[in-house]
Design goal:
This protein has 9 helices and 7 strands. With 198 residues, it is an alpha/beta fold. The protein has 2 domains: 120 residues, Rossmann fold, CATH 3.40.50.300; 65 residues, 3-Layer(aba) Sandwich (Rossmann fold). It is globular.
């Protein structure tokens, strides 16, 4: 079974691409969504977070995202501590997902910071969903009602697109010029034939 990682900057459309793969019957693991779910449901992870960040980490059993964000986005060391608690649990969860789908030809892991977080070790190939910066800004302004400055701040905190393009094995262009469905279908055929050859 091949493990395909799909990543892309904020507003690039990676979830749209993963949705197309899912409709084709490919199992998709959304690492960011699973991380949120695990923080709300995994007792030992909750305890570890409380030990580091204090009692305010959870209020009435609910993860206090605003409180944690107010700490980790000001302090890189604390962000690293949080990631060191969450990432191993998500990694274990991903491995269980792969076991569960071991009879499938290939599976997909969708993650926003796959290249930044060194997630390359647990997958075979990386796909970058690339979209021009201006188009991403317009999408996010419409989708999330954010202003341009807030979006640009988020975009600037991520790895530059040029670097991501160098690290990716495949690139899907979401630029309103190339057909997304056609690109996904072509990549699907490639994955199926690659898995068959291996």
């Amino acid at each position: 079974m091949l493990k395909l990682g799909i990543t892309g900057g904020i507003g690039s459309g990676k979830s749209t691409v993963c949705g197309i793969f899912a409709r084709m019957g490919v199992p998709v693991y959304n690492a960011d969504e699973r991380a949120k779910w695990l923080v709300d449901h995994h007792p030992s992870m909750q305890q570890a977070i409380s030990d580091v960040f204090g009692e305010k980490s959870f209020e009435n059993g609910k993860y206090n995202r605003e409180y944690i964000a107010s700490i980790v986005f000001k302090d890189k060391t604390m962000l690293e501590k949080l990631n060191s608690i969450i990432h191993p649990v998500v990694l274990q969860d991903w491995e269980e997902f792969c076991i569960e789908h071991k009879s499938d030809t290939y599976v997909i892991k969708e993650a926003a910071i796959m290249l930044e977080a060194g997630g390359r070790d647990t997958i075979d190939k990386i796909v970058l969903v690339h979209s021009p910066a201006e188009l991403r800004i317009q999408r996010l302004m419409e989708r999330d009602q954010l202003d341009r400055k807030a979006i640009e701040l988020r975009m600037n905190s991520q790895m530059p697109e040029e670097e991501k393009m160098k690290l990716a094995d495949y690139i899907i262009y979401n630029d309103n010029e190339h057909s997304l469905i056609e690109q996904v279908q072509n990549l699907h055929q490639l994955m199926v034939s690659s898995a068959w050859m291996s």
